[in-house]
Every structure is written in structure tokens, then in C-alpha cells.
Request: fold
Amino acid sequence: MAEKFDIIIIGSGAGGSPIANILAKKGRKVLVLEKGPLLRSQEQNKNSLSEYKRDEMQGYGSEKRIMHNVTNKGDSFFSSFIEPDINDEPHIYVGKDGKDYATIEGYTAQVAGGGTVHYGGVSLRFTPIDFQLATFNEGRNDLKNDPNGTIKTEARNWAITYDDLEPYYCKAEQQIGISGTSASQAKPFSNDYYHPPLPPNPISHFVEEGMTKLNIPHYRTPIAIITKDHEPSKKSRRS
Reply:
């Protein structure tokens, strides 16, 4: 293994992986650092066994306790290859009582590929408004649930616009391979690399029918999974 690299990327998720792929194809020596394991599918593994198993069967070690100085300090939790050690990487939120809590529920995937593919399973774009929140909130008088004016004082405009970033959304979607549709989305698309959407399951089918009858625009969520062979990633829909 080489000891010197042109670029070092920390994290192999939706941001790191496409960047590493593009740079490596341009001849750069790239090192990707990932804290979690590489999980192989049945087709990829030499022993023809899938390394994907139910999360609760992959827990390691004994029961752990939250050590951070939060309201739920001392609560128990188990970590696994999907859910990280909360003491190592805490996500703190404010509860309804105004106190700080450490979330015990899993929130991302600590594996090669990251949460976009292995946990959240979606590949969403920000909308143009998301890049200009300060401008969007100027002059608003409908923020009744924000008595302290926090939204207006904390909202910021990005240094770039949606149009600046949009071509790179396309590149990432092409590299990762996603299914869904761009129809009815409140954002422009210069290229559509979506695969055909998977058919709705029995439950979501009722939701789709209901939204159609109510004349509510809807679209198939961009899922970070392929529905046909995907040349950029060399993935087969059967893997």
C-alpha cells in the first residue's frame, strides 16, 4: 500500500465516495478513511454469503451507558456496525422540557458507503430556497411560533446558489445510482439519472392513491438503490 497520497478523504458516504471516484479516474492517488467496515453482498463475497444481517444481531460488546453531561446520562444503549457508539459520536437534541438529551436511536450508518445508501437509503437535493433562507425569511409576518425571532436572526444565505451546485448533484446521482422520478419536485433538473421507480408496496400504494384522489402532487422518493444494472458503479441490480 502506498504511503503518500495526493488527496485524503475522510468518510466514504455520499459526499466522499463520488469525489474519490472522480479523482481516482483522473489519475490522483486517493486515500479514503472510513471508521466502519466494508459489507459485501452475496455476489461480492468469496464464500457467497451476504455480510448484511439484522442490526440487532451485529451488536458488539456489553450494554453501555451514556456518559455525557445530559439529562439522560446513565441510560443504557447498545452499539453495532450501523449505530455508532454514542459516547464517541453523540447527537444532542433539546427535549420538550428544554433540556439536552443524547439520542439513543440510530441515525446513520458507520460503514463503507455511509448512511445515504445503507441507512437513510435516499438521495435528496436541497431546494433553491434552502440556499437563500435569510432572503426568504425577510419581511415574513407569519412566524407566530417563533416569538423570539430566532428564524430570522439565525437564517443565512449560502455563498453559492442551487444552480451552482445542481450539476454536481447530477454527477453524484449518476455515480451512486438511484431510482425514483424528478416529476413534481420543486427544483430544476439539468439531467435525470433516475432509474425507474420501484413499485409501491401494499401500504404506500394506498397513500399514493389517496394523494392522487386529493389532487396532491407527489413523486417517488429518490431512493439510493438501483433497479437495473448500473455501469458507473459496476453494480448489478441482482446484488
In short: Residues 122-239 form one domain.
